[in-house]
Every structure is written in C-alpha cells, then in structure tokens.
Amino acid sequence: MPVHNAPSGDYRKGRGSRMRTRTSMVRAWLAAAVTAAVTAVTLTAVAAPAQAEGIPSVGRNWAAPGPYAPEVSIGAVHTLYYPQNMGAHGEKHPVVIWGNGTGVLPGAYTLLLRHYASHGFIVVAANTPASNFAITMRSGIDLIEGLDADPASVFHGKVDLDRIGSAGHSQGGSGAINAAVDPRVDTVVAIQPGPLNDVDLIDEPVLFLAGQFDAIVWPVLVKGMYNDADHVPAEYAELRGATHFGTGISGGDMRGPSTAWLRYWLMDDQNARAEFFGQNCGFCSDSGQFSDFRRNGLAKQIP
C-alpha cells in the first residue's frame, strides 16, 4: 500500500472552474485548522459554494422523490436513468456511475436509480453482475461523454462532466471504490461494500454505508475501510436495523443518506452539506436513523 503524505485537499482534480473553486475552498478549510485565529479569518473570507445552477432544492427531503420525472434507457452494456426534461432550465446534470451487487443487473436497484434520476442525476449503471473491478463502470463515463458530444443525442450539451460520482452496493460498492482511481471521478458512495478494493488508492471524499444487521458484509469490515481512508474526507454511517438485502430495489434506508452525499459533492447543495459537516451536522446526532456515525479528521475540518 502506498504511503500518504499530508493531504493536498485537491479532491476535485481541478477540472473546470467549479472544481477549481471547490479545490481552493478545501485547501482554505484545511489551512484554517492550523490556529483559531487563522480559522476565523479564513472562514470569513471563504464563501459557501452555490447550488449547482438550475438544480432545484429539495429542502432536506433526501429519501423523497426529487423534482424530475425519471426516464430509463436500457442498452447492451449500460442502463441509463435520467431526468425526462434534462436542461429545461439551462442546467447541466451530474453523473453517477453505478455498480451492482453479485449476480444481479441494474433492474434489481431500479427504484433507487430512478430516485437518483428524480433528483437530477444521470445514472449510468453497468449491465454486469460482476462489477467489482469497475471496468464496465468506468466505461460508462466514456459512454456519457460521447453522448454529451453527439448532437443527435438527448444528452447533448446537458451533462455536467465536471461532476461525476461512483456508487454501488455490495460487490458494486467495492467497484465504486475501485472506479474512483479514474481521475474523472469526484466522490464515492460505497454501500455495504465487498472487500476486494484498496482504499489507499483513491483521493476522493467517500461515504461508507453499512447495515447494523448485515450478515453478508459485516459492519466491522466496512468500518475497517473507513479507518483506512484517513487520507481523504470520509464518513461512516451504519443504518439502524438495516440488513444486506434491504438495499435492493428501493435502496431502503440507504436511499436518503446516499442522495444527500451525492447532492452535496456533485450539486453543492448546502442543505446536504449541513447533514455531514460542521459542528452540529444533522446526521451526526441522528441516533434514530444511525446505530453508528463517524467522521474522520479531514471530514471534521470541512465547516
């Protein structure tokens, strides 16, 4: 495993003006932790990132359907879930590449992926029952880049290629971590992820979701991955009462937190930011929803 030096804070790869803004902000946040005096000055000077242009707010209703009607297009290699009226208000839509659990295809998660689309994401789901090594997941980025460039495509000019997340469940959760070695990926949601990955290889913010009563991927295994992610902002959320297979179809209790994480990192949703970051973050004290909730040092430095 590689040895990590002090983190640079360059979690958005510096691609595009929005990403350069976020990179400079994260660096400012980390610098602010040096002394209380510097903190006070820095936090006064750094403005909060704006909501992604044209994307409607949903308040804090992360588990409820979003403002877009979802559409589905099934292809040979990928299934696409996306808003029907993309770009209706001039907005561009962030991308989520998705990895399935062992032995199933995207249809096993259809309600969850339609839910993401209703919140304004374009989901590119790999049509493979073996997504651990993320080959098909990563090729989904190539697919959506090509569709965005194609004047004959419904996606033409409507894809925000500067905002891409990887997400998945079980084997696909491990695939989401492996997909993040791709420099185009900006954040990760690993839902009850399998063990065949190396968290040390990624440099994106990551949310680890575990189920309290998961007998397939034990919470202690997910917690170990979280502990290993001390070189990036990482959070661990253990859903109270959740089992491994409760995530299928609708996303179960994982639906709300995963949507909020994606809305912050890919849409700059400040309501979502408040759930994860700051002294009194919303999810931090939600013992009714979570049996365990943890934030590492770098996550705690984001105000």
TrEMBL record:
<dbReference type="Pfam" id="PF12740">
    <property type="entry name" value="PETase"/>
</dbReference>
<feature type="domain" description="PET hydrolase/cutinase-like">
    <location>
        <begin position="79"/>
        <end position="276"/>
    </location>
</feature>
<keyword id="KW-0732">Signal</keyword>
<feature type="signal peptide">
    <location>
        <begin position="1"/>
        <end position="47"/>
    </location>
</feature>
<dbReference type="InterPro" id="IPR041127">
    <property type="entry name" value="PET_hydrolase/cutinase-like"/>
</dbReference>
<protein>
    <submittedName>
        <fullName>Chlorophyllase enzyme</fullName>
    </submittedName>
</protein>
<dbReference type="InterPro" id="IPR029058">
    <property type="entry name" value="AB_hydrolase_fold"/>
</dbReference>
